[in-house]
Amino acid sequence: MSTTSAFTPTTAGRTRLRNRLVMSSMTRSRATADGRATAETAEYYRQRAGAGLLVTEATQISPRAQSYPTTPGIHTAEHAASWEQVVEAVHGAGSAVHLQLFHGGRIGDASMRGGLAAHAPSAVAAPGKTYTPAGLVDHPAPVAMTDAEIRATIREFADAARLALGAGFDGVQLHGANGYLPHQFLGRSGNTRTDDWGGTAAGRVRFTVEAVRAMADAVGPDRVSLRISPAAGLQGVDEDGTDELYGEMLSALDDDGLAFLDVVEAPGRRDLTLSLRKSWSGVFALNPHRDAEPAPPHEVVPDALAAGADLVVLGRAWLANPDLDRRIARGGPYNEADPATFYGGTAAGYLDYPLLEG
């Protein structure tokens, strides 16, 4: 498949895309202290609206869902109103934008949640440390969620989806990857439950399936996507049976009419990617991993399309290259991302990456 096929218009559910390039969700920690998007947020996304679709940074659905400082929220009317400027900026530049809905579960210190204890499938702390403004601290032991608390959290995902659509977003995405709450339900190491929310593969995928369906009931399935990271093993999530788990999950959701499935490819697991592609009859978005030397985006994109992707999701490349679509079309050159400015700070490393024509 040629590189130019990346620029063929398409659709993902109800969202029309002018090309097949997607900007991945990336935490930037530049919201206000109370979780509102800013004018700078709007400009950041506007600059990158050459993507057919932009997926926003992870956005917490409740105070308890927050894991990191100065990340945005979508659980109050004020939050929703602050996002309207972002939607207007992206739409004005001719692109589409979905809001990623997030719950950190056991990840993050209580200081991130106003003193609230972390909620998780079981009372098992995540390994390692977590960042706070006061420095790195150990992850605290979470409180095991009751059945009622699980159901309430699923309703919060639905409520957040409604707020997002009310703010003008074209769709919403469940962050079911990277060791956060939905992913925590998948791993036996952090989910020791013996009720209907654990144990078997069907029990462990139940939270993700029911959260996606609650969001779909709220705003329509063709406005909902799901991000997953099979076999990633991030933040202490040991899936213990990846093929069975995701086979169960995709089998449950494949006929639901979702906008797309967003797969973060694990290192060395193109075989798994191809298997998931065969199991999913809808739009398949791939955030590809290259095992060899890092390849430039104009090589990564056609490789992902050749592997069966309908959409190609890139992260750091969009962060450092606001005009990445044009650079891919020309075969480069590309700016390098500066990790020192990834999280928090000023416009430096946020709004000042140079364009091709300076």
Automatic annotation (TrEMBL):
Transmembrane segments: none annotated. Residues 7-332 form the NADH:flavin oxidoreductase/NADH oxidase N-terminal domain. It comes from the Bacteria. InterPro entries: Aldolase_TIM, OxRdtase_FMN_N, Oye-like. Gene3D superfamilies: Aldolase class I (3.20.20.70). This is Alkene reductase.
